[in-house]
Amino acid sequence: MPSEQRKPLWLIPNLLSLDAPLVAVAWLYLFAKTWRVDYLPWVAYASLGLVVWVIYITDRLLDAVMRGGTSEKLEPRHAFHHRHRRLFRSCAAGAGILALILVTTRLPVNIYTYAFLGGLMVAGFFALSVFSTHGPHELPYGKNIMAGLAFAYGTAMIAFSYTGFDMADLLKSRELMCFAVLCILNISAIDLWEHANRSADPEIKASNELALTLPLTLLAAASLLFALQDREITKDGEFTTRPFFYAILTGAALLYILNRSRARFQMDALRVLADVALLVPCIVFMAVSRP
């Protein structure tokens, strides 16, 4: 293979659409620990990872087709999926069938109630992908918001289905709200960075930076406030939600640092680092959770 076609090892998870499932599974663990789920079976993690993988493969294959399927118009991850589309279609079909079997046979029945709303969010995301139109200088804010909401809800609902509380409690939870905002900003960051790179207008570059800086600052402030408000301590001497909000705070801080230093990195590296910014908080969570 010619050297210019070789991809670095750190880019492989992104090319294979494995980055998003890894983030989802990691944060499912955080939700389960935060909400004191005594037992979350491996099937829950496997089902979530498979479903997220199928959605991301489908989205990238669809994007490749809508952009004409030519390498000049495709980003590396979309071009890779389009070039190996037969293999990815087979993988998505197999993973989807396996996920369906696991969900229907091994997960609790009340998961269907949660999954209905999640399915509507995913359907809305694909509808926006297909039917919404935006020019090369416009940003798909609606699609990004729907993607972040669907990703956050889908991750949290599996853990919450084992708590015994109602769906209304999930929708009102601070943990879900903060994680959803973090996901939306993480997804939007890539589009904002790409948009800034394509433009030579300093005002556009400044507005794109502010579009991330302001909400990231507000999210960090809210997370810190929620963490300090946590007064409930478990029998093991651990705070109930403080580690989770410290993880949100860490993710917001890392995205802020990336936003400020993005000129040092290529876009492929920024995409991977944006995923890392959602994985490092899991390490912080485990470190802070120790009594």
The count of helical stretches stands at 12
- H/E element string? HHHHHHHHHHHH
Helical residues, percent = over 70%
Distance between the termini: 52 Å
DSSP strand count: 0
- In total, the number of domains comes to 2
pLDDT below 50 for ≥5 consecutive residues: which ranges? none
What structural class is derived from the secondary structure elements? mainly alpha
Shape: globular
The major β-sheet equals:
none
Tell me what portion of residues adopts beta-strand conformation.
Answer: under 5%
User: What value does the Rg take, in angstroms?
Assistant: 19 Å
The pLDDT mean sits at 89
Q: Could you please describe the fold and organization of this structure?
A:
- The protein is an all-alpha fold and 291 residues long.
- It is built from 12 helices and no strands.
- Helix 2 packs antiparallel against helix 3.
- The radius of gyration is 19 Å and the shape is globular.
Gist of the model:
With 291 residues, the protein is an all-alpha fold.
Secondary structure topology:
Elements: H1 12-15, H2 19-34, H3 42-66, H4 76-83, H5 85-106, H6 111-131, H7 141-160, H8 167-172, H9 174-198, H10 202-229, H11 242-260, H12 267-289
Helix pairs in contact: 2-3, 2-7, 2-12, 3-4, 3-5, 3-6, 6-7, 7-9, 9-10, 9-11, 9-12, 10-11, 11-12
